[in-house]
Design goal:
Elements: H1 16-24, H2 31-50, H3 53-69, H4 80-102, H5 104-107, H6 124-134, H7 138-149, H8 154-161, H9 165-182, H10 185-189, H11 199-214
Helix pairs in contact: 2-3, 2-4, 2-7, 2-11, 3-4, 3-11, 4-8, 7-9, 8-9
Length: 215
Amino acid sequence: MALAVTDPKRPELGPDEAVVARVLAGERALYEVLVRRHNQRLYRTARAILRKEDDVEDVMQEAYVRAFAHLAEFRGDARFSTWLTRIAVHEALARRRRAQRQSPMEESEATHGVTPEDHAGSREIARMLEQAIDGLPDNFREVLVLRTVEDMSVAETAEVLDIPEDTVKTRLFRARALLRDAVAERAVAAAPSAFEFHAPRCNRIVANVMQRISS
């Protein structure tokens, strides 16, 4: 009889808020669970804003480290995932502003470097969709990824991006219209599989974050 593989996201520990309480009580190693639970969302969020893979990983790590440093300030008024995503959004937007000041021409070009993760499975349709999304204006791309790819609610997207809910709805409508002009309907249906965050990258982020908060 094969041994069951332990889920690194540790569902038996309960919701994020329960894990946060244990981390604050001194079980710092459990912060790894929170990182693994939210790597996919933070990757997609930062990727929607920045597009450059190296910048995305840097922002993710900074967001996790900043969240850990301010973990005691989390009061549970919003879900932990929303609180954490908002930190990542602020980090990503700040980095994008710095990049635009330094080299505005480079910022307008999407980077599509080939990584080992790109070779995992047959992802032609998802890749086509990623490229089409990268071509959207920044404001539209951010809303589209959070609402359609990450499946966040209108209210949560508005809170994370600090914009009115009506603005979220308007930008999403226009983003979808632009996307339909760029890709076929079958590519739109593949949105949930876009911007996957594979195990090797997940492990790398976890290792870097845990090393930084332990020093």
